[in-house]
Each structure stands twice: as structure tokens, then as C-alpha cells.
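Researcher: Please translate sequence to C-alpha cells.
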Amino acid sequence: MLGTELAEPKLTDAAREANYTNEGGLDRTICFLTNITGLWLLQECRRIWQEAGISRSWQEMAALAESAPPLRFLVNPNDPAFATPGDMPKRIRDACRKSGQGEIPDDAALLRCILDSLALFFKIRMDELSSLTDTPYELLHIVGGGCQNRLLMQLTADALNLPVVAGPAEATAIGNLLAQAIGAGQLSSLATARELVKRSFDVETYRPSPTADRSAINHALARVRSMVKKG
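Model: Translation complete:
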């Protein structure tokens, strides 16, 4: 999910057409958000490879992706073709071939395609969120298991040209516990709960690399935007 916290719901036609929703949050706040593709593509690739007898850790997959040339192959991560379980490596290879990008030569290039595409897709959605809320955001905070993928976090910071704060990884469980603690009177407020999280868990900040090729990133971003527009 990608979104922000608001004091009031956003009920515009633009928000509805962009598939954003207004969910009730703690202390009568509104979670204004939309669903986006996360590490699903990587998870399905890993599952398919495991079924073929190829076992790779998340760290090994990240190292493979880092060894491949950047921004060569790109897909729309939200393409309906990727939404259901199946042979994800084949689907991604087929998508690149059909879009005229040629054949993905190896698994390293395929993994890099996924991570580059996700980072650029996050940028597209972040720009959309900024437009819908009329807010120039200064950073993106990523929580959950995906924040442990250091390469994806750096690629996202480079794509956004903004800092990315990663962590905590177990955000869902932490949020559940804190909500119960507030309800039971063990914590006085949402602000107190958030301060407790800051003191209890380490986070890592990724900043845009000074050596990032902005021209190449912008060109790749335009390619992904075109794919997203085509649906």
C-alpha cells in the first residue's frame, strides 16, 4: 500500500479514478491509500525457481540483480498479467519481448528488471499521491519485509530523488500491538506509541546517490509511465 495520513477524507473524482481509498485510522485520522505491487514478482520468481531445483536466498537474488546492467529491461509491475500465481519469470520475459525490448539474457537481468521497474513505479505513484493531496513530499517511509532489500531501497531513493526511510520490517505486528496497548490504556496516545517505535527499532535512511544517472532514470521513467498508461 502507498499512501499518507490525512485529517479529512479525500473524496474527489481524481482520487476515485486513481483507485485511492479512505480508511479510518487511529485517533480519527484517515489513511488515504492505494494498493501497489510490492515484492510479489520476486516472490513468485523465487517460488518457480525453487520448484525447478534452484534455491536462492533473498540476498543472493539481490546480488544477482546488482550485477546486471541497470534500466535495460522494464515492465509495468501493476500489469494484470502479473497479478496471479504462475510462471513469473516467463511472464516477465514475454512482456519484455512483446514490448520490443528483446530477450532477457539471464536471471540477473530479469531480477534487475523487477527491481528497476518497482522503483520507477513507486516514483510514478508518489507523484500521483503528491498531486492528489497537493503536497510536495520530502521523503518516502517504507515499512514491512520489503524494506530489507537494500538494493530496492537505494534504487527507490534514486528514482524519487528523495530520501527513503526503511523500517521497521515487522510493522504490521508492531502496529497491532501498539493499537491494543492504546486500547488497554497502557499507552496514552498515538503520538506516544509512535515515539516508542522510534526508540525501540532501528531504521535506515537511503539518500539519492550523487552518481545516479538522472538522464537515464528520467528516460526509463518515461518508458514505465507509457506502460502504465496503456494499462
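Researcher: Any highlights?
Model: The mean pLDDT is 95.
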